[in-house]
Design brief:
Elements: H1 2-17, E1 34-37, E2 45-60, E3 65-67, E4 70-71, E5 74-90, E6 95-106, E7 129-138, E8 147-153, E9 191-200, E10 203-211, E11 230-231, E12 239-247, E13 270-288, E14 292-312, E15 317-329, E16 335-338, E17 346-347, E18 362-366, E19 368-378, E20 390-402, E21 409-421, E22 425-440, E23 443-460
Antiparallel strand pairs: 1-2, 2-5, 2-23, 3-4, 3-17, 5-6, 6-7, 7-8, 8-9, 9-10, 10-12, 11-13, 12-13, 13-14, 14-15, 15-19, 16-18, 19-20, 20-21, 21-22, 22-23
Keywords: Signal
Protein name: Porin
Length: about 450
């Protein structure tokens, strides 16, 4: 770790103190970037970025929640949702390289319990890892028709929110359900993949063949074989995925592998239709009767529309909106709870066929259908005076109709961004309201609702 930080320091120092070329090559240089140009025109470059998202959170605990073995009805925690370093560049006319290193969901209970399942001490310092390590080749010079890449990458199918640019999201956090296999058979939504992507006319496409990780390597005890579908502990097959977008107005940036912008804050006029899929043979299994083990394919697909455009260019107002339908088939009765940077460590109650129900968790992934939508409005620039930023309020909704639930699970968020300096420095205040459940036979029935309030400060360069 110390060698990586030393390398980043040397690179950033070199960038910061590098002499800017004179003449036309230096015109329009962005002084807010840590960027080192490799040729006179600046088309070949290497760049370093840093991101930190700090959370302050109040949460109403799910029933039975415990924190280090003590019952807690409410929690307050401080954490780092994401801390990342990106290193990437266009090395020549055809070759692009991208690396990302960092950590996620780091709060006071990181590394809990005191001893892991192997009986050895846990370690709160083991957290950061490479998210991405990918090289990409441009087949047709100066044309985005076809790029071929390989490595550990976020290039995914299903939807734009399966590969989000987390520095530019409009809502305080992304709809994580769209990262459908996150930390099950991937590494925080990244996969070892061979992919092809490009833009031909108004069509933007990406297709990938991925080599999933075994579920046994995700750091959690694998669930027991039961009537409820889970990721299979035996067998290994490749995963196939793709995403197609039709762009009616401006084309979206196609430089970095995979990552898709959350909102352009009125800088572009975007209206897209998209459709995506992920499929994998025999990825899931469950038990029928008392002895029969049955395998199922993983089949996920979605259709959606995305709008992000200025309303009044003189004032700087803009709108951003997304609406999508997701058909999620993980096999019979699959259901998985997830709580983002969960502030709790355990639960005194149990629900059949699910785990991790404590704290702020809710049924996020499951076999069934999901409707997701978000909308935001960017107020006029310099709302609080020149150089003092503006506001962007938003709302989002996730409606999950899963086989294991007796009623549709509705999760609602309302929030506002204070864009002090665009996405580079912003405060976000978000309130989320979610359902809680009890057992009703083999299914789960809602018994009430809980809320959480989060204040996030993002700094990015």
């Amino acid at each position: 770790m110390k060698y990586l930080l030393f390398t980043c320091f040397i690179i950033s120092s070199s960038v910061g103190f590098a002499q800017v070329p004179s003449g036309p090559a230096s015109s329009g240089a962005d002084k807010s970037e840590l960027k080192y140009t490799l040729n006179q025109s600046g088309s070949h470059f290497f760049k370093v970025t840093f991101l930190n998202q700090a959370w302050l959170r109040l949460n109403q605990s799910n029933p039975g929640t415990t924190v280090v073995s003590t019952p807690k009805d409410n929690t307050f925690d401080i954490g780092l949702r994401r801390t990342r370093i990106q290193l990437f560049g266009q090395l020549n006319d055809r070759v692009f390289m991208y690396f990302q290193f960092g950590m996620n969901n780091f709060n006071y209970q990181n590394g809990f319990p005191a001893f892991n399942t192997a009986g050895t001490p846990s370690n709160r310092k083991v957290q950061a890892f490479f998210h991405d390590a990918v090289g990409e080749y441009l087949v047709f010079k100066n044309k985005d028709y076809l790029k071929i890449g390989a490595g550990l990458t976020v290039v995914n199918g299903l939807s734009r929110f399966s590969q989000p640019s987390v520095t530019t999201i409009m809502t305080m956090d992304v709809p994580v359900f769209a990262q459908a296999t996150v930390d099950q058979t991937d590494e925080f939504s990244r996969k070892l993949s061979l992919y092809a992507r490009g833009q031909v006319g108004r069509v933007d496409y990406r297709f990938a063949i991925s080599d999933p990780f075994p579920i046994q390597t995700n750091g959690a005890a694998p669930p027991a074989l039961s009537p409820y579908s889970t990721f299979a502990l035996k067998g290994h097959t490749k995963q196939f995925q793709g995403l197609l977008l039709y762009q009616f107005f401006d084309k979206e940036s196609h430089q970095s592998p995979g990552y898709m912008t959350g909102t352009y804050l009125g800088k572009k006029k975007i209206f897209n239709l998209e459709g995506g899929f992920i499929t994998q043979k025999n990825a899931m299994w469950h038990r029928e009767g008392t002895t029969d083990t049955t395998y199922s394919n993983l089949n996920l697909w979605s259709v959606a529309t995305f709008l992000d455009m200025p309303l009044n260019k003189a004032k700087g107002t803009a709108i951003s909106a997304y609406a999508g339908y997701f058909n999620m088939n993980y096999g019979p009765n699959y259901l998985r709870y997830n709580g983002i940077m969960n502030p709790a460590t355990g639960s005194s109650v149990a629900l059949p066929g699910v785990s991790g129900i404590q704290g702020n968790a809710f049924p996020m992934f499951g076999t069934g259908k999901v409707m997701y939508a978000q909308v935001g409005y960017l107020l006029k620039q310099d709302l609080f005076g020149a150089g003092n930023g503006t506001l962007m309020p938003y709302a989002q909704a996730q409606l999950g109709s899963y086989e294991r639930l007796t009623k549709t699970a509705g999760v609602w968020n309302l929030g506002v961004n204070y864009l002090i300096r665009g996405h580079n420095s912003k405060l976000s205040l978000d309130y989320q309201n979610r359902p809680v459940y009890q057992a009703e036979g083999t299914k789960l029935a809602p018994t009430g609702r809980r809320g959480q309030l989060v204040l996030q400060y993002q700094v990015f360069i």
